[in-house]
């Protein structure tokens, strides 16, 4: 083929730049009121100046150029002035505003919309722009707006100690934990939302780009300090705007950590856009230099970071970062139209000095008014045309290279980074002279463009449409790099049962909605598959996985490319099965919400002991991992042995999207605790199950054994404390207090019976003892009292201490909520007073005065008898549709106890450690 004539090559390149459709990777919503704008309003399309500084804007080069180009848009003479444009604009929007918007957005394939800029009521939603683009627009979520919305909601729920109450350090600390937990939960939800393709931070405006990267505890403490000292005192007056440095940094760090975890889980992470450089007078110009982000960039190498606005005037710094770090990208928006023509061309040249063209992204930063899109697109294309034409004519680039780079900048780089799934076909025009006299912005629909959705899936990327709770939108969950899906459920004796399905088969099941069945009799078997009296060979259950529970299995062992999903049971008609513990807990939670406007959250503590294993003459022997060890110590032995392993566990948890709030050594040798975040009931139990499974797998991969046994060694008890909070978006503080009192009254009245579900094994009752900081001996409660079974740890938070790791937590929490609901339904009075000291140190008279008159059961048979004979509790569970579940639990645990009683004490002890 003969080489293309240089002039033809230039013409072809120029026509490509003028007509290539764009993916606008950063812009904002349009205002609803467009027909009547003021002089200074429209100036916002060409300058970041405000107030008195706008007086001088008409003498700037960007202003003069914009006047000329807006005259073209509104078909005014060249001599028309700004006031003439405003008059013609008002007339045009009154006649047909859609036509103006369509022309301004012509050539735009899709827009990624940061919709956190202003009051949503004043703006069209992000998807309203779909009417003017070739493909649907997507969202960019501004993290500071998410935070402000959560803080406002917490204030409305009376959960923020604002004003003078900020001096209460405990209340402030609790509020901070509640906030950051809610924030991280919101971010995780957004990560799973297909309408959202990335995040945005304006930390540059608030406190600067020098985000403090450090240990989790340092970031948390800095956030708490800023929250208490700089935010709570005046947050109501400032509209809950987050602008305290420690808080701002914590938001950025938390978001990046969750995105890094998403990358570990799926092989891909959504990006974070950072405002850098050019901005209004709110910013510190010094702290808007993207070089300040270098520590953050290095800390999170798997999180894509987009430096917005060409970082003007720090474009070279941004280009350096995009060159040296694989996760950094340089956006070149906003300088069009806010910088002069020569300045824009200089920005592009500086960006290209060392930055790979595969790392440069196109945007307009269009906002409020469609003219902002129009001017940015026109001027941006003109600048690209000038720079790339010069490089082609000078021989720096060939025609093919020039056109390939232009396509990458305008379309393909954003398409790839944000996972949009489009394909850019042949857009080279056949007649390069055809549109020489047309506007540089040409509609993409007139181009020879082939765009199609890339929706093919392989065995390593399966899309699964799943339903959230009733009435919520459908969301697509993608299982990436997965070969096998481990569908799992927790049986009645707390054994994780599993069915492994190849990903192609699972995808087929997902497509038809037909999963697999198990025998109904499987509900009546024990850990060794021996049968209980309820084991029937007749009937079946359909196992329905919940795709929201998708997490990778631990990838550090011998199994690779596997994921787990937790499941529930449905009948042949697809209805939730009455003996499915997971479904029962979900329905009880929904009943609380519908009947009493209460939403529960629960945070679990995982206490466990890590053991060496060795074969002895009498069987497997277990010894604690480290012995120079006490509560919250950090000895040299722990430094070398225990804490490296604990760090490995917590790292692995974060890799699958579970971020513990803390971990520390417990009182016993080899004993540690991991604190999980508070979550809605079913989600909390799901997370607990998957966290424990991973914990066991990490420890086993190191040739050790982790056990949840309630008393694996004399005097070393392990619990599974559950911190339950009662929350409401509609009830007042006093109304929640009243519900809590009745809830607690029901809980205390039926606590001896509840122990049959909370401590379901004979081994559990070794912890029922005085002076051991376990659950104590008495049915009692107390504020910050760790010698009672129920501790009040916050104004709306209760710690259930008579609970251990052998319980099926779906069943245990269902029973707790049932007893609490019984108290509320019958308006039970709270007759037991808060116990101010260790009950074992009080005499009978003192105990009676407190209303403490009943002891906890002393063994599993006693507890199961009490549970079975508690007719009031059983009636309430029947009303909740959970009585069949609870009765099956009683039968299963009696059979388990009988089976274990046939073993000698040593065999029984080893048997439990090997399984729990």
CATH homologous superfamily assignment of the largest domain = Glutamine synthetase/guanido kinase, catalytic domain
Largest sheet, strands/sense/barrel: 10 strands, mixed
Q: What general outline do the C-alpha atoms trace?
A: elongated
Distance between the termini: 72 Å
Question: What is the CATH C level class of the largest domain, in words?
Answer: Alpha Beta
Low-confidence stretches: 1-6, 426-478
Query: Structural class given helices, strands, pairing?
Result: alpha/beta
- Relative strand content: 15-25%
Mean pLDDT: 84
Number of domains: 4
CATH architecture field of the largest domain? 2-Layer Sandwich
Computed CA radius of gyration, to the nearest angstrom: 32 Å
Number-wise, the strands total 26
Provide the CATH topology of the largest domain.
Answer: Creatine Kinase, Chain A, domain 2
| Total DSSP helices | 27
Oligomer: single chain
Question: Key features?
Answer:
4 domains; alpha/beta; Ubiquitin-like (UB roll); ten-stranded mixed beta sheet; elongated; eight-stranded parallel beta sheet; single chain; 916 residues; TIM Barrel
């Amino acid at each position: 083929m003969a080489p293309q004539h240089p002039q033809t090559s230039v013409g072809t390149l120029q026509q490509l730049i003028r007509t290539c459709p764009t993916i606008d990777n950063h812009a904002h919503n349009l205002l609803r009121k467009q027909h009547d704008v003021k002089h200074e309003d429209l100036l916002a399309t060409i300058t970041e100046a405000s107030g008195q500084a706008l007086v001088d804007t008409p003498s700037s080069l960007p202003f003069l150029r914009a006047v000329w180009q807006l005259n073209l848009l509104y078909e005014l003479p060249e001599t028309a002035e700004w006031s003439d444009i405003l008059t013609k604009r008002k007339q045009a929007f009154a006649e047909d505003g859609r036509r103006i918007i369509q022309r301004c957005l012509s050539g735009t394939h899709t827009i990624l919309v940061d919709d956190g800029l202003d009051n949503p009521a004043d703006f069209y939603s992000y998807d309203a722009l779909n009417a003017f683009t070739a493909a649907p627009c997507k969202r960019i979520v501004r993290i500071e707006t998410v935070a402000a919305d959560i803080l406002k909601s917490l204030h409305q729920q009376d959960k923020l100690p604002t004003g003078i109450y900020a001096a209460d350090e405990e209340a402030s600390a609790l509020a901070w934990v509640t906030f950051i937990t809610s924030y991280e939960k919101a971010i995780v939800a957004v990560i799973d939302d297909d309408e959202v393709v990335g995040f945005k931070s304006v930390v540059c405006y608030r406190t600067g780009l020098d985000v403090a990267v450090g240990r989790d505890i340092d970031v948390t403490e800095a956030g708490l300090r800023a929250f208490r000292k700089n935010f709570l005192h005046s947050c109501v007056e400032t509209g809950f705007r987050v602008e305290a440095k420690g808080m701002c940094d914590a938001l950025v760090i938390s978001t990046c950590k969750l995105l890094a975890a998403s990358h570990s889980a799926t092989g891909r992470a959504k990006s974070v856009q950072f405002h850098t450089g050019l901005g209004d007078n709110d910013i510190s110009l010094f702290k808007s230099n993207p070089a300040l982000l270098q520590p953050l960039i290095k800390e999170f190498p798997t999180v894509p970071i987009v430096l917005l606005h060409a970082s003007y005037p720090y474009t070279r710094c941004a280009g350096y970062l995009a060159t040296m770090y694989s996760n950094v990208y340089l956006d070149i928006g906003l300088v069009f139209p806010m910088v002069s023509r020569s300045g824009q061309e200089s920005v592009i040249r500086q960006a290209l000095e060392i930055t790979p063209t595969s790392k440069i992204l196109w945007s307009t930063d269009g906002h409020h008014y469609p003219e902002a899109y129009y001017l940015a697109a026109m001027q941006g294309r003109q600048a690209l045309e000038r720079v790339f034409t010069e490089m082609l004519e000078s021989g720096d680039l060939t025609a093919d290279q020039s056109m390939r780079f232009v396509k990458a900048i305008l379309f393909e780089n954003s398409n790839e980074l944000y996972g949009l799934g489009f394909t850019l076909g042949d857009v080279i025009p056949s007649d390069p002279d055809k549109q020489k006299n047309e506007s540089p912005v040409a509609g993409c629909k007139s181009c020879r463009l082939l765009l199609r959705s890339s929706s093919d899936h392989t065995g390593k990327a399966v899309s699964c449409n799943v339903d959230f709770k009733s009435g919520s939108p459908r969301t697509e969950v993608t299982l990436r790099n997965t070969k096998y899906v481990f569908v799992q459920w927790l049986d009645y004796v707390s054994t994780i049962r599993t069915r492994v399905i190849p990903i192609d088969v699972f995808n087929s099941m997902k497509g038809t909605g037909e999963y697999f069945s198990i025998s109904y009799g499987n509900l009546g078997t024990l850990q060794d598959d021996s049968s209980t009296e309820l084991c029937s060979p007749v009937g079946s259950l359909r196992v329905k996985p919940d795709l929201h529970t998708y997490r990778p299995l631990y990838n550090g062992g011998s199994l690779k490319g596997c994921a787990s999903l937790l499941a529930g049971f449905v009948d042949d008609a697809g209805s939730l099965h009455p003996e499915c513990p997971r479904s029962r807990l979900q329905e009880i939670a929904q009943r609380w919400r519908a009947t009493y406007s209460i939403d529960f959250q629960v945070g679990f503590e995982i206490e466990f002991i890590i053991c060496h294993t060795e074969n002895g003459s009498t069987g497997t022997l277990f010894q604690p991992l480290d012995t120079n060890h006490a509560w919250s110590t950090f000895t040299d032995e722990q430094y070398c042995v225990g804490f490296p392993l604990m760090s490995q566990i917590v790292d692995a948890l974060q890799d699958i999207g579970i971020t513990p709030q803390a971990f520390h050594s417990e009182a016993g040798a080899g004993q540690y605790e991991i604190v999980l975040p508070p979550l809605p009931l079913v989600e909390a139990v799901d997370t607990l199950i998957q966290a424990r499974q991973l914990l066991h797998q990490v420890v086993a991969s190191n040739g050790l054994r982790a056990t949840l046994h309630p008393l694996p060694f004399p005097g070393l008890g392990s619990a599974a404390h559950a911190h339950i909070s009662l929350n409401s978006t509609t009830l007042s503080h006093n109304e929640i207090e009243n519900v809590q009192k009745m809830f607690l009254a029901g809980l205390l009245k039926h606590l001896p019976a509840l122990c049959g579900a909370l401590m379901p094994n004979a081994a559990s009752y070794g912890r029922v003892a005085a002076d051991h900081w376990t659950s104590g001996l008495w049915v009692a409660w107390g504020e910050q009292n760790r010698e009672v079974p129920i501790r009040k740890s916050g104004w709306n938070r209760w710690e259930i201490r008579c609970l251990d790791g052998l319980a099926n937590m779906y069943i245990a929490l269902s029973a707790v909520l049932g007893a609490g609901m019984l108290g509320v339904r019958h308006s039970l009075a709270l007759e037991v007073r808060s116990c101010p000291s260790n009950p074992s140190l009080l005499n009978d008279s003192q105990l009676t005065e407190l209303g403490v008159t009943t002891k906890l059961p002393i063994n599993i048979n006693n507890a199961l008898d009490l549970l079975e004979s508690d007719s009031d509790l059983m009636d309430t569970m029947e009303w909740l549709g959970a009585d069949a579940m609870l009765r099956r639990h009683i039968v299963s645990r009696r059979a388990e106890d009988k089976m274990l009683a046939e073993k000698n004490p040593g065999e029984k002890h080893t048997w439990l450690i090997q399984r729990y």
